[in-house]
């Protein structure tokens, strides 16, 4: 027994270390992917979607608040990969960790469920997890750059806005996808796979054409997202939205299609407005559809149970109900 207890005590630190390293690796890899589509506006380098924030929040919601050291470690390695570390590295680490941790705490306080099966879960993720909590990471990070002398005061607000929007988009686009993949239990049927393949082909063709066309046809993306939300609910809608956001970021980086002949500030505003409206549409619409599906299934199950109860009462109550009808004429004949 003592050997088993000692093994378990040794196993806990090892599991914690492995989990911390895994979270740090995922955070670092997601950040490097996000930096591939970085843009510049008024001397501010920003990523339209910072996926590391979404990865961090998903890890906190799934594994608990105890995985926050992995987020800090991943942020530290990211700063080291971008250049020699300075006094701002501590502030960036604190901000990048405090934002997702605050988002996780706020979501848990309102009873957030990771399956995103209710409209209130989608609304909470938008306003508490993305828009409110990411104010912490952007403010702490930009103030750290300003105090370290790496950012000029006139560029404070443009950098702050780009940082905040990038973190918020990471939560809106990446966190739901990771939560859906974590909650997935069984693959769809063969018929659903055919429709999913058709949806994927249409999405790739239509989104590529919409983002790279000079006709500014970004609105063509929304019918695909609506189709995905109606048929595949949250997984399909968020995957389509994430792909469309990535393709739009690539077009904005290259200055082609809907983002051609625009100033850097106009590119940033147009891209972020598109990403924000697309993420809100996909998340909230799929949440409403999922909630209606759950409600309809609950009503069907209740009706089925009620029918079984009525059938049971009818089967056991009919003999007793017929007995008095047969006994009544006999009593009347005896009285005569």
From TrEMBL:
<feature type="transmembrane region" description="Helical">
    <location>
        <begin position="55"/>
        <end position="83"/>
    </location>
</feature>
<feature type="transmembrane region" description="Helical">
    <location>
        <begin position="196"/>
        <end position="222"/>
    </location>
</feature>
<keyword id="KW-0472">Membrane</keyword>
<feature type="compositionally biased region" description="Low complexity">
    <location>
        <begin position="317"/>
        <end position="327"/>
    </location>
</feature>
<feature type="transmembrane region" description="Helical">
    <location>
        <begin position="234"/>
        <end position="252"/>
    </location>
</feature>
<dbReference type="InterPro" id="IPR007895">
    <property type="entry name" value="MASE1"/>
</dbReference>
<protein>
    <submittedName>
        <fullName>MASE1 domain-containing protein</fullName>
    </submittedName>
</protein>
<keyword id="KW-1133">Transmembrane helix</keyword>
<feature type="domain" description="MASE1">
    <location>
        <begin position="21"/>
        <end position="293"/>
    </location>
</feature>
<keyword id="KW-0812">Transmembrane</keyword>
<feature type="transmembrane region" description="Helical">
    <location>
        <begin position="160"/>
        <end position="184"/>
    </location>
</feature>
<keyword id="KW-1003">Cell membrane</keyword>
<feature type="transmembrane region" description="Helical">
    <location>
        <begin position="16"/>
        <end position="35"/>
    </location>
</feature>
<dbReference type="Pfam" id="PF05231">
    <property type="entry name" value="MASE1"/>
</dbReference>
<feature type="transmembrane region" description="Helical">
    <location>
        <begin position="122"/>
        <end position="148"/>
    </location>
</feature>
<feature type="transmembrane region" description="Helical">
    <location>
        <begin position="89"/>
        <end position="110"/>
    </location>
</feature>
<feature type="region of interest" description="Disordered">
    <location>
        <begin position="317"/>
        <end position="336"/>
    </location>
</feature>
